[in-house]
Design brief:
Blueprint lengths: L1 H9 L7 H11 L9 H19 L6 H15 L8 H8 L4
Amino acid sequence: MRDRRKAEITDCAGFDNGLDLRYYRLMTIGPDISRLTPAERILLVQELWDSLAPSQESQPLTPAQQQEMERRLAAADRGEITYSSWGEVKRRVLPTG
């Protein structure tokens, strides 16, 4: 089954690199995301997140969200929060290979 599916995907016209093929697979997988690899799930989440970005400005924060944001900013100003670069996060969560 997996070999047949791979053949179907690679035979599709217009796909010139691995990212395009992964994106095609994400968009055709349907609601059963359990068949996706962890890396493909991350790509799917990125696509979903990016699709929300334009609408974020129109969504006001609730009072509780505003209070939490202010609390976190104050903690950051006091040096109580540690940060990870995007590169460090990717190394921790994406498979190597």
